[in-house]
Amino acid sequence: MASTASAARIRPLVAGNWKMNGLTAALAEARAVRDRLAEAGFAPGVDAMICPPATLVAALAREAQGSRLAVGGQDCHPSASGAHTGDISAEMLKDAGAAAVIVGHSERRADHGERNADVKAKAAAAHRAGLAAIVCIGETAGERRAGLTLAVVARQLAGSLPDKVDAANTVLAYEPP
User: Fold this and answer.
1) Distance between CA 85 and CA 32 in Å, rounded?
2) Could you say which of 63, 77, 91, 105 is catalytic?
3) 105 an active-site residue?
């Protein structure tokens, strides 16, 4: 699965985040990716994942079953269940067939005010559910212009990663501005 580590190396992961795009007809695009990955000699040693909107996770997981294409969710709530209208838990994503979930995406941090502690809780939820956590980090354009890249990324790393991190279930995704 995604970016697993052996004693000596970490596998590259190419993950496409469909964001709030894609209806059922878009599954044809995912099938084309799945089929291309099945061709002999195509991108050996590289893991591939599509993170569709939540409405397509289960359908895409069925399409990808038995192939090199993994499916991920775009976000999760830190709780396993409860009165959180419109949210989706890591357990629900796992049940739908996801192998991973993106947490801390720059848009979630900016548009929804997610803090490092929120990202940490979501990453821990992903691990609790048996999913890999794709933890996004990165500065804004303004922070980059101000020369704050290293400080921002260091702060995000320190505050966004769960207490127990394993390269087999955690992927770091740097999102430059």
Assistant:
1) 34
2) 105
3) yes
